[in-house]
Write a structure and sequence with these properties.
The chain is about 55% helix and about 20% strand. The protein contains 7 helices and 4 strands.
Length: about 150
């Protein structure tokens, strides 16, 4: 959850920002901090590049957890968590990454280490996730496995 707060602070938005709001704010911030504005200022250009990278990361992250984005993938997400078992999962900096048999991958943000340990020790990670992960943590689609 700390990551979400940091990204929102960087862009100056709250949790009610729509996709349109995020896009407008992102564009305006990028106009202000774009490295091309610092032609004869190497230090300023370097700083602008770092800030631009942070802004881009924050924008993409906030778009991925936005309600409108979640709604767009709701059917796919529901199908996956209902009918596809978990094939792999791991915790990295309070983000639980879950890979499903159907190739879909989702990240759950703010998962405590003790919850992850309980999932590791459970008889069925899929059943554990249905009871304790899904619906309890902010999630985002993280990717899909490539077909062989």
């Amino acid at each position: 959850m700390k990551r979400i707060a940091e990204h929102r602070k960087l862009l100056g938005v709250d949790n009610t920002a729509t996709l349109k709001d995020l896009k407008n704010i992102y564009r305006n911030v990028m106009k202000e901090t774009h490295p091309d504005k610092f032609i004869n200022d190497e230090a300023g250009k370097q700083e602008a590049e770092e800030r631009s990278k942070s802004v881009i990361e924050a924008y993409h992250f906030l778009v991925s957890i936005n309600e409108e984005t979640q709604e767009k993938y709701k059917e796919e997400y529901t199908e996956t968590i209902t009918n596809s078992i978990i094939t792999d999962f791991y915790l990295e900096k309070s983000i639980l990454k879950v890979q499903h048999l159907n190739g879909k991958m989702f990240e759950y943000i703010g998962v405590p280490r003790n919850t992850y340990i309980k999932m590791v020790n459970s008889d069925s990670p899929s059943r554990f996730a249905r009871r304790h992960i899904y619906g309890n943590f902010v999630y985002r689609k993280s990717g899909e496995a490539m077909a062989d």
